[in-house]
């Protein structure tokens, strides 16, 4: 959960100018995120949530309109943290980045850490999404933005050029990156929702394995890509 209490102006949350009151709101949200790691949203009672931090049920309802509003606030903060943590990937100099393998592992590691930190909220959102698509829309948008941002990092390493959009086949390489992230995110979502094994979201090995899978997928596309066409001389300039 984000720490600054100024970030708690959310729909369904009663605003407060007092710092202590805002800290209590944040404590309730953090407690819910923790408790949802070991139980479903339906199993989480308001009285249990309040008892977990020594608050009263009245204190809960003075801040949240309902349990649904409370969970929507949890979702909003989880998405906010995702945008802050996952979409701040700077373009990387391929000379100093360690290459495609290192970049794939670094990106996947960041995704796993974020999903692990919010696994209870994510699992509850996935279960609730079965009732209607609106519950998961924000996370789909985040995944799309993450895939597009990752292309900024990975395309120069794949293409070996500072301007990958000019390279023949770059559109297909972007699609390969997008599919690679679909594989990564789909595997992690399944691990959170069903935990089918052999690796869980809490196993560090899942990050290494998925990073390697992403790398192998992108490397296969890079190694089979058509050769780059020769650069045409600019008009008015002959060979020297």
UniProtKB/TrEMBL annotation:
Top-rank lineage group of the source organism: Bacteria
Stored Gene3D superfamilies: Tetracycline Repressor, domain 2
Alphabetized UniProt keyword annotations: DNA-binding
DNA-binding interval(s): 45-64
Domain HTH tetR-type: 22-82
Protein's UniProt keywords contain DNA-binding: yes
Keyword Ubl conjugation belongs to the record: no
UniProt-listed Pfam families: TetR_N
Protein name as catalogued: TetR/AcrR family transcriptional regulator
Organism from which the protein derives: Bradyrhizobium ontarionense
């Amino acid at each position: 959960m984000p720490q600054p209490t100024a970030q708690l102006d959310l729909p369904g949350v009663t605003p407060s100018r007092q710092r202590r009151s805002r800290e209590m709101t944040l404590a309730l949200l953090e407690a819910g995120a923790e408790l949802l790691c070991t139980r479903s949203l339906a199993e989480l009672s308001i009285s249990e949530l309040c008892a977990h931090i020594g608050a009263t049920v009245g204190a809960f309802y003075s801040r949240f309109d309902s349990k649904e509003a409370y969970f929507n606030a949890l979702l909003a903060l989880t998405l906010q943290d995702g945008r802050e943590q996952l979409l701040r990937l700077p373009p990387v100099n391929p000379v100093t980045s360690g290459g495609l393998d290192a970049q794939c592992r670094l990106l996947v590691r960041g995704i796993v850490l974020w999903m692990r930190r919010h696994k209870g909220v994510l699992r509850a959102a996935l279960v609730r999404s079965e009732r209607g698509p609106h519950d998961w829309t924000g996370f789909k948008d985040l995944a799309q933005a993450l895939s597009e941002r990752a292309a900024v990092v990975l395309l120069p390493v794949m293409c070996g050029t500072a301007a990958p959009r000019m390279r023949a086949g770059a559109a297909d390489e972007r699609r390969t990156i997008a599919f690679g992230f679909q594989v990564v995110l789909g595997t992690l979502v399944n691990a959170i929702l069903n935990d089918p094994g052999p690796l869980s979201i809490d196993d560090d090995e899942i990050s290494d394995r998925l990073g390697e899978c992403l790398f192998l997928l992108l490397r296969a596309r890079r190694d089979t890509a058509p050769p780059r066409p020769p650069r045409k001389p600019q008009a008015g300039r002959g060979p020297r």
